[in-house]
Amino acid sequence: MVPVPLSRLQPSPAEEIEAWPYLDEGVLLKTRSRKVCMTCHFFRHHPGPECIPLLTCHLHHALIAHGEHLTHRCQGWTDDMVRQRG
Questions:
Q1: What number of other Cβ atoms are within 10 A of residue 26's Cβ?
Q2: How many CB atoms lie within 10 A of CB 9?
Q3: What is the pLDDT of residues 51-79, one digit of tens each?
Q4: Nearest 5°: phi and psi at 29?
Q5: How many CB atoms lie within 10 A of CB 85?
Q6: Ramachandran bin of 3, using left for φ above 0, alpha for ψ from -120 to 50, beta for the remaining angles
């Protein structure tokens, strides 16, 4: 898998992240390793309504339910570029 440049991971100003669908069990896999959504290159969090953070996957352009970012991943998981570079 080729890493996506960070500039392409940012939603466009017209794009409403709140309207993104949630990832479901068909995409998310339970895992007990460090390979979870929170450690993935595509994971981001954004301020949502009433300052409640929205957890997002920019690979799937979807929201991640709170808590699932700590225990789940998808087949597209890739290591964060910052950690790869050291």
A1: 7
A2: 16
A3: 899 999 999 999 999 999 999 999 999 99
A4: -115, 135
A5: 6
A6: beta
How far, CA to CA in Å, does 44 sit from each of 33, 38?
Answer: 19, 8
d(CA 85, CA 60): 24
Between 13 and 82, name the one with better pLDDT.
82
Dihedral sign computed on CA atoms, order 24, 45, 8, 41: negative
For the full predicted model, state whether its pTM sits above 0.90: no
pLDDT of 14 reads 44
The answer to whether 54 and 46 have CB atoms below 8 angstroms apart is yes
Residue keyed to tokens 């953070």: 53
